[in-house]
Each structure stands twice: as C-alpha cells, then as structure tokens.
Amino acid sequence: MLNSNVLVLNRSYLPIHVTSVRRAFTLIFQGTALAVNREYETFDFPSWQRQPAGRDAIGTPSGDIRVPRVIVLRGYDRVPRRHVRYSRLNIFARDKYTCQYCGKRPHRSDLNLDHVIPRTLGGRTTWENVVCSCIDCNRRKGGRTPAQARLRLLSRPVRPRWSPMMHHIGAGARHEEWQPFLHVVESASRRSSVD
C-alpha cells in the first residue's frame, strides 16, 4: 500500500507527477503538500488524520489513516516540460510495455531495449532506432536486423509527441480520485497527437 500511486498536482492543480503513498505522507506531514479530495478540498496532516479511513488505509498506533490519492504542492507552480526525455521507461511507455516483435506484454522485468539496426552495424541509440522487446525476441534477433532474423516490427519507432505526464499516469494504476484532475492533461495529449 505504501508504494501505490499518488497523483501530484502543482499549486495551480495541474498534474505534474506520480509518487508513492509513502512520499505523499512525508510531504503532507512536512507541510510541503496538502491532501486533496474529489471536491478539491485540501487537508493538512492533522485534518487528514481525522478523515474516515475508508477501504484504503494505513494502520498506525494512533489509528488508521486514509491513503491520499491526490496531493497538491503548496509552493510549486511550474509545469512539466513538453519535451519527452529519451529514457528506458519512456521507450517502454511509448511502446505500451509491449514487445515490438511478438506483441506480448510480459512483466517489465522481462522487457529489454533493442536497437532495430544493431550498434555493430552502425545503428544509433535514438527514438527512431530503439524499441521495447521481450528477452526471447531480443535473443532471437541478436546482432542482426529484423529482416535478417526473420522478425517484423509491429510499428515503426518514432519520437513521441505526448506529454511525459501521460506516461506516468498510464504506466501505473489510475485511481478514481484522479479523474477530476486529469482532464487537462488528457485533452492536451489529444491535441498534441492531432498536431
């Protein structure tokens, strides 16, 4: 429960990050953030402790405390960059955690990154040359091109145009308490995919 997801909002109530329940409790306790409910009501730590525990709660010596699913940072008003940083997790997110050769969706620990044109053949580490692959397909392909290994890519790798925030939201479990706060990010993502 302590490692489950909490949506983080900036001071303007725009989603900027996803963190753990453990970190969210720390931020609320320190006064850096406030817990937020679906009605946009905010709670400091003492007032959050008095909320009914409900189904998602953490047991403490002084009683059960409801798990916050959304927090708002008190002093942070920046917005995440639109540029999507090249990273292993962002490649996985772009490819929807799906092997781009066989179409399987194994556990994340069984996924690899694969250079479509192998580095040994001059392939570069770029958005357009790296895909998510399962370990079996990666081994089967080895240092060959997909054609040489008789594999076919499900989709051509491209630089993503979505917001990094959508990756974080899509990669983890969404909670119903997030819904009132996601419409801004989802509509921005739809606009950028149309551009």
Fold topology:
Blueprint: E1 5-9, E2 15-20, H1 21-30, E3 33-36, E4 42-43, H2 45-49, E5 57-60, E6 63-66, E7 70-73, H3 88-94, E8 111-115, E9 130-134, H4 135-141, H5 164-171, H6 179-194
Parallel strand pairs: 1-7
Antiparallel strand pairs: 1-2, 3-4, 3-7, 5-6, 8-9
Q: What series of H and E elements makes up the topology?
A: EEHEEHEEEHEEHHH
Beta-strand share of residues? 15-25%
Q: Please identify the structural class as seen in this structure.
A: alpha+beta
Q: How many helices?
A: 6
Mean pLDDT: 84
How many domain units?
A: 2
Low-confidence stretches: 186-195
Shape designation? elongated
Describe the structure concisely.
The protein has 195 residues and is α+β, with helices and mostly antiparallel strands.
Structural features, described:
The protein is α+β, with helices and mostly antiparallel strands and 195 residues long. It folds into two domains: 5-80 and 163-194, no CATH class; 88-141, DNA Binding (I), subunit A (Orthogonal Bundle), CATH 1.10.30.50. The protein is 27% helix and 20% strand. It is built from six helices and nine strands. It has helices at residues 21-30, 45-49, 88-94, 135-141, 164-171, 179-194, and strands spanning 5-9, 15-20, 33-36, 42-43, 57-60, 63-66, 70-73, 111-115, 130-134. The strands form three sheets. A five-stranded mixed beta sheet has the order 2-1-7-3-4, with helices on both faces. Strands 5-6 form a two-stranded antiparallel sheet. Strands 8-9 form a two-stranded antiparallel sheet. A hairpin with a 5-residue loop joins strand 3 and strand 4 (42-43). The radius of gyration is 20 Å and the shape is elongated. The two termini are 39 Å apart.
